[in-house]
C-alpha cells in the first residue's frame, strides 16, 4: 500500500449521469447561437479584440458570456449551474457544492464570514494558508491558534494530535468551530474521523482546507476525503490537483451544522457579480473528467509513480524521496518530497538547481522540494523526471563546500498543541496605527503586518502577534537561504511594521 490503511475510503459511484456537463454544454449552445450581443462583456464574443492574440483567445471568447437568458447565474443558480453543482456534490460526496471563481481563497474567506461574527472565537490550526487569516480578519473573529505537529524527517507541519484539539474544545466551549488544513502542501494527511466526532459532540463544525486534496477519496490508491471522514465544510482547489482552470475551486458542505443559505449569501458578497463562465465551465468539465476517466487514471498513475519512486530512492546517493512515516496516516502518492541525504543542500538551493535542469518544482522550504504529478502520468513523462533527479544526484556529488547551503532547523511554530491567543485580534491589529522598526527593535513588539514566506503561504507572523527573538532569527535565516517573502513592506526583510 502507498499509505497507512484506514477504514474510511469511500467507494465513489453514482446513479447520476456524469457524462453530461450541463454548464459547459449551455455555453457551447450560446456560442453556436450567434445572437447579437448587446450586453457585457465588451469584446462582444470576440468581435472586438486584440488581433494578434485573437487566434489564441477566439474559442474562449465565444463562450465568455455573462449571466443572461439561458445561461444561469452563479449567485442564484436555477438550471445549468445548479445542475453542474449537483453533479459535483454527487461526485465528491457533499450535500451541496458551491462553485468558486476566486480560488480556495474565496472559499476560506466565505467560511470565516459564515461561521464567525465579530468577537466570536474559533480554534484554528496555526499553519493555515493566509486566506484563512484574512477571512478571520474581515470577520472580526478571535482565533485561538493551536500549534501543529511536525513530521520528524521533513520537518513539515501537519495536524496537531487529537488530544490537544479535544482539550482545546473542552477549555473553550463557546468556540464556533475547529479549522484545520488536511492534507498539507506536501500531501501529508491525518485520519480526522475522531476529530470530526469530537467537534460534533461539542456541537460545532469541522472546517477543512483541503486545497491539495480534491482527488482524495476518488480511488483506493489515494487517501480518504475529508467529507468521508465527517467534515462539515471542505474547501478544495480543483485547479491544483484536478483539471480545472486556475482560480476555479469548490466549496463542499455536508450535514446541518452550517447554514447553506448564509454561506450562499456570503459567497455572493465576496465573489464577483460578473464571474468567469469559462472558469465555471472548467469546474463542470473537471468533475466530468474525474468521474469518467480520472478515477481509473489515478490507479494506473499511482502504480507507475510508486514503482519508480521506490526503485529510484534505492539508486540515489545524495538525494532521498520521502516515503512516509509513523506520524503521518496517509501520504499522497501524486507528490514527491525530495531532499538531500547529507544535509549539504537546502530546499531553496534545490529549487533553483532543478529549475536550471528544466524542472520547475511546486514548492520548496529550508529542507525539501516538492514535485506534483497529475491524475494521468505516462511512463515516458515520469522517466523524464527521474532522469533529472538522477542528474541532480550526480551533480551534488561533485559540489564543493563553497557551493553548499546546508539546511538548518528553525522555530516556525510553538510546541505542538500549544494554545495561544494573539495579543490583539487580526481585525483590531489591522486597524491600529503602525510604524517601521528594524528586526532587532521589533522584538517584543506587536506585529503590524503579515510576514509570509511563500509558498506555501503560511504566515510566520500575523498582525496582532508578539514578535519574539526566534521569529527574528528565523526571518534572517530564511532570507539568507533565499526564501521568497510575499508582499513584505521591506523587500530586504531588515525591517517590518509594528503597532504603535
From TrEMBL:
One of its GO terms (molecular function) is transaminase activity. Keywords: Aminotransferase, Coiled coil, Decarboxylase, Lyase, Pyridoxal phosphate, Transferase. Residues 418-481 form the Orn/Lys/Arg decarboxylase C-terminal domain. Residues 22-323 form the Orn/Lys/Arg decarboxylases family 1 pyridoxal-P attachment site domain. Residues 375-402 form a coiled coil. Its cofactor is pyridoxal 5'-phosphate. Pfam families: OKR_DC_1, OKR_DC_1_C. PANTHER family: ARGININE DECARBOXYLASE (PTHR43277), DECARBOXYLASE, PUTATIVE-RELATED (PTHR43277:SF3). Belongs to the Orn/Lys/Arg decarboxylase class-I family. This is Aminotransferase class I/II-fold pyridoxal phosphate-dependent enzyme.
